[in-house]
Amino acid sequence: MSRSTMLRFTSAACAALLSLSCSACGEPNAADSSTTMRVAYLSTANYLTTVRGEDFLDETMQHTNVKFTGPYNPTDAYSAVLSGNADATSTGTGSYINFVAQGQPWVAFAIEYYTGDSQGIVASPKSGVNSLEDLYGRNVAIIKRGGTGDYVLHKAFEHDGLDVGRVNIVEMSPSNFQAAFTSGQIDALSSFDQNLAAAMATPGAKLLVNATEYGNKNVSIHMVSKDFATKHPEAVKAMYRALVRESDVAQATPSIITDAYREFGASDDVTEQIARFNVPVIKPIDAEGLKMLESQAQEYVDFGFIDAMPDLQAASMDCSA
């Protein structure tokens, strides 16, 4: 099948696979041809989105059918899984930490790690802002409190010993970012991925900081419902292997990422900027991966985004064993 295929039936790993590492996931059950993983994929070029077009997916999944629906915006994708209409989707590690802290029934199974050059703070062309300290008393747009943009702001200001409380943080739909950014309604935006690329590609804009400068922990993560992880751990592990394989493909052919953004409507200028970002790799949620997630969760507590450390071990599985 071609990469543009939007619906695909594939297969899962057999019963000899090892059990889940997390206590919430239960014992593995043998896969059969009736197992279906329903993936609500996002309109971003993460590997759970791009893998849907790979010919190797059938071979890797073996006895599990995979049905892709989308593209979804993140909110609708999460709702689809929580309502029982899908089984798997993707998000940022920060959102995942928030979900687990709220008691939502998710199990993460793969980290999509990148250096952080695709997350940052960009000053608008009309702002006259040249440094983070220049943002005191200025309007900085984020998508939502406690989200990636908010986290980037807090991390960057903490790293430079500055007081983020002196910034006017404005929550805004990303559909309004570019108009507000170019017109001077906001002085800067703190964002990621395609939104950051669009800001960076704006003539006269200035990148103030990206996440590589303070040690990036906030990356992408792939997750399934707790119910699906409990019933079909072998299918989840098979999808993990498919994502690893897709990551390997992307290292050799990074155009699969920019091709996906073009498919979702990104302009040439934005796509050219995205092409300069670090190509992600898939990592397991093993001891090292869990430590990174828990370190970020502690920062979420410190920043006041969540009240207490959630049990991330019980809401994740190590698919590398």
TrEMBL record:
This is Alkanesulfonates-binding protein. Pfam families: NMT1. Residues 66-254 form the SsuA/THI5-like domain. Residues 1-24 form the signal peptide. Its main location: periplasm. Belongs to the bacterial solute-binding protein SsuA/TauA family. Keywords: Signal. InterPro entries: SsuA/THI5 (IPR015168).
